[in-house]
Design a protein that fits this description.
The complex is a heterodimer of chains A (about 290) and B (about 300).
Chain A (H helix, E strand, L loop, with lengths): L12 H10 L2 H18 L1 H4 L2 H6 L25 H37 L1 H16 L2 H12 L3 H11 L1 H16 L2 H8 L4 H37 L11 H8 L8 H28 L5
Chain B lengths: L1 H27 L5 H6 L5 H11 L5 H13 L13 H36 L4 H14 L3 H15 L12 H31 L2 H8 L4 H38 L5 H10 L3 H29 L1 H8 L1
Classes of the chains: A mainly alpha (about 290), B mainly alpha (about 300).
Chain lengths: ~290, ~300
């Protein structure tokens, strides 16, 4: 059974993509940064105590410029900025990954089903998706957050929902090209159920474009989380979040400019890493470059 | 051509109705009583009830939606729940500011991104190509609001060259928000124009043109660029839409009185008629941009032009 999915070199599709991906230095740099960031988010509590370091106020140490003790300085309540950035990565990455997962799972399921069956259902679903796509993600998320409250869970749901259409489109588009292939016809001819055909034969072929879209959406969600928090419509102070830290820093640009620099660098590093990985994946999965 | 435009405008109507319905449903699902919010906690129950009645809030949501639609068709966007001014007037006051911002952004993108992308594409793997594409990757990763903060920090706080917010000083006030808004789009368009140039340059008709002895500049500008424009235009349209929605952040940072700032203020104040008005403007402008992009395809590609005529 396994042989059938292998190509001439005896590699699975995944292995092939990975081999081409590792050949690109910039993609590997991006992946390394991303893994480090994820590890930092996972082990944030071991590095810095959340309650006592990232949250507790220490008025005596207010506005300490970067020093060996506080490499990124301290904020308006004397909290270590590095500690807050490390804990902030939990929110950014956590909300980013969960909203992307929501969008990916729901979008791909809808897209593959309507794409495979076509007909009126396909038409109706895609028109509804057009409506969702007509509103930019960040505005959509803003409206949902305004209606249901600004916290991590609504934020994740809001961004997840607003990104469903793009995955529906990507999945549907790929399914439409795969649907007419002979091996699908063969599977149908030997009496496979539609659901089995979609899961076993159609979805594996959507893997590459969805993976690429995932990195794009992830980067966009992380940017939206910090953007919304900057506007006060996302994570609220004093919870450490990159965007809300920057929004506080706005008031102290004259005396404590470092407050505005480091949380922003954290965002740029994360997005850059994701973009590099995304570019690498795009090239690794592009059939034209094979 | 006109048939195509009319078809597209007709297709826009259901989308717009759907967008309004969607936003209406989400906002009316929000807990809280708008009439109470407007009058404050001290107001008597009778006056709140009276306001609720006059605002039509006692009717089912779907009836409210159709009432709203009927008014919009008559050109009436309702009255702001906060300022009590007609929504149309406030929108009209804000739209030019956002369009100026996005217009300058588009202009900068065309002026800088296109030449950059073309040059990088024609000199693949040169130092110029590598540096400009590394910068483009970086530019794509810069959050607009952080870039805005950095610009304020450098140009207003440290150097004191530019005013940090408002509109009093005209063009001086425009420089920072427009640049913050443009960087991502510029980087995106530069990258796309480079990669589509690379693709076109390898094709047979370019080799033919070169072997005919046409000068290199002419080959690039007349033969390659025209073919590379289709994907570039697509991305340019997308980036212009991004700029307009990015205005939501940038306008707030620089206190620029455009539609993005109005939207954020109205969302925060739960001013539903104003929010809907802003969303209609956003949706319409995206649709118009997409339509213009589709029409521009025809300018660069006669095959597409023929399709539109059909």
């Amino acid at each position: 059974m396994k042989k059938r999915t292998d190509n001439l070199l005896g590699e699975t599709q995944l292995k092939q993509i990975w081999r081409r991906f590792t050949k690109r230095p910039s993609a590997m740099v991006g992946l390394t940064i991303l893994i480090i960031l994820i590890l930092l988010a996972i082990f944030a509590d071991i590095l810095y105590d959340y309650e006592n370091v990232a949250l507790a106020q220490n008025i005596a140490a207010r506005f300490t410029p970067p020093s060996p003790e506080h490499p990124f300085g301290t904020d308006d309540y004397g909290r270590d900025i590095l500690a807050r950035i490390v804990h902030g990565s939990r929110l950014s990455l956590g909300i980013g990954f969960s909203s992307t997962a929501v969008a990916l799972i729901i979008g791909t399921i809808i897209g593959s089903i309507v794409g495979y069956h076509g007909g009126r259902a396909d038409n109706i679903v895609m028109r509804v998706m057009d409506i969702f796509m007509a509103i930019p993600n960040i505005l959509m998320a803003m409206i949902i957050v305004a209606a249901f409250g600004a916290n991590a869970v609504t934020l994740a749901i809001a961004l997840g929902v607003s990104n469903i259409p793009i995955f529906t489109r990507v999945a549907r588009g790929t399914v439409l090209t795969v649907r007419e292939q002979e091996y699908i016809e063969a599977a149908r001819a030997i009496g496979h159920q539609d659901r089995a055909i979609i899961v076993k034969h159609v979805l594996p072929n959507c893997f590459a474009p969805i993976l690429v879209q995932m990195t794009v959406t992830l980067a966009m969600c992380i940017l939206s989380v910090s953007g919304l928090s900057y506007l006060g419509m996302g994570i609220q102070v004093p919870v450490p979040e990159w965007g809300s830290m920057l929004s506080v820093a706005r008031a102290y640009l004259t005396n404590a400019s470092y407050m505005a620099i480091f949380p922003g660098l954290a965002i740029v590093l994360t997005i850059l890493a994701l973009n590099l990985v995304g570019d690498g994946l795009r090239d690794a999965t592009d059939p034209k470059l094979r | 051509m006109w048939k195509f435009v009319i078809r597209r405008i007709i297709a826009l109507i259901p989308v717009l109705l759907g967008v309004i319905l969607l936003v209406y449903l989400i906002l009316s699902a929000a807990p809280g009583d708008p009439a109470r919010t407007i009058l404050g906690l001290e107001a008597s129950e009778e006056s709140v009830e009276a306001l609720r009645e006059s605002m039509g809030l006692n009717k089912p949501v779907i009836v409210q939606y159709f009432d709203y639609l009927r008014k919009i068709i008559q050109g009436d966007f309702g009255t702001s729940w906060v300022s009590r001014h007609p929504v149309k007037e406030e929108l009209a006051a804000c739209i030019p500011f956002t369009f100026v911002l996005a217009g300058v952004g588009l202009l900068l993108t065309i002026l800088f991104a296109l030449p950059l992308g073309i040059l990088a594409g024609t000199k693949q793997n040169s130092i110029f190509d590598n540096i400009s594409m590394a910068l483009a990757s970086l530019g794509l990763s810069l959050p607009t609001f952080w870039l805005g903060l950095l610009l304020i920090l450098l140009l207003s706080v440290k150097l004191g060259w530019l005013p940090s917010s408002g509109t009093k000083e005209g063009i001086l006030n425009l420089i920072m928000p427009a640049s913050a808004l443009t960087i991502q789009g510029l980087a995106g368009v530069a990258r796309t124009s480079r990669s589509s140039m690379l693709e076109v340059i390898r094709s047979d008709f370019i080799r033919t043109a070169k072997s005919k002895g046409i000068s290199k500049t002419k080959v690039i500008l007349r033969h390659a660029l025209r073919n590379a424009m289709i994907p570039t235009l697509t991305v340019m349209g997308l980036q212009l839409c991004n700029m307009i929605s990015g205005a939501v952040l940038v306008e707030n940072i620089f206190a620029w009185p455009g539609i993005g700032r109005l939207l954020v203020q109205s969302i925060q104040a739960r001013d539903i008629p104003m929010v809907l008005g802003c969303i209609v403007v956003f949706t319409l402008s995206f649709s118009i941009i997409n339509l213009v992009v589709d029409l521009l395809y025809a300018v660069f590609d006669p095959r597409i032009k023929a399709q539109y005529k059909a």
